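A further point concerns the way the authors explain their paired sequence and structure data. Each protein is reduced to its one-letter sequence and a matching series of backbone shape codes. An entry of this sort, consisting of the sequence and the corresponding backbone structure tokens, reads as follows:
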Amino acid sequence: MQYDITSKLIAENGKEAILRFFLKRRPQSCELIEKLPQEQPTLKKGDYIVKLTNPDGSEEIHVWEFKTAWRKAEIRNLMQHTLWLQQKYQIPVIPYMFLFLPSSSATPVYEDERFCFRFELIKLWELDGENLLQSEDYVLYPFIPLLAKGEELTLKAEQKLYNSTLKQEDKSDYLMALAIFAGLKDENLCATLIRRRRDIMIESYAYRLIKEEGFAEGKLEGKLEGKLEGKLEGKLEGKLEGKLEGKLEGKVEGEIKGKIEGLRDGILLALDLQYGEEARTLSRSIQVIDSLETLTHIYQTLREKRSLEAIERIV
């Protein structure tokens, strides 16, 4: 869900930037078609229909589908939209799939025993993150972790966003989206971004959408879902086992401190997502807890979806 919401945010605010950077197109105008007649195939959350008017006055329609991972069977949805739009509007329709995570089997052709369907496949991991970072297309910066060299460029993108002259609401939206997409590649990087900019992130529209659409309804599991709710315990089991023998060396102490901070920040964000103002007093108490054992106990209580009172008894 969170990837659909962030893709929606970028598609709505940055359609011109998407056309310019990813598709190398500069139409005279473009509009996002949000509502079509009821007989249309049902749009999924990651699907967007964009109508372009070119400098010569000609028109065309793009179907944009944003996908986290490659699933061949889901291409039929893109094919269905393309055929329906072609028949309905009688102008060229170009289907695009924006694929986030690398896949050796991804191909711009769908074939089965009856159909052969060709579409434009945009493999984000093959695109140059440096080029995007040098631009001022800030609305696309959340995609940087997914581009070539993206993980090493992410903190630079975060710094540029934070120091930009963007409106506060846009800045918070794009920082939140950056953290979400960073989580697809590196959970520790996601944790770092949240820890550095948590105060501004919780002001974002994307944050509110995630909260409203059920991201915080006890679903503290999965990849990024887990990261945002405290799964930043990382590899506490096994990794620290055996390292605490004898003297606590500086390296191990640093690891423990980092995991405490990550786990604590994840818990605070999870409490804010789930309970909002109701958990403010409790959150202030948790901010000063430095015990890994206590924080882990709180984390497990959150996962078990127990009450705030149960967490307060631990604190």
The chain is about 50% helix and 10% strand.
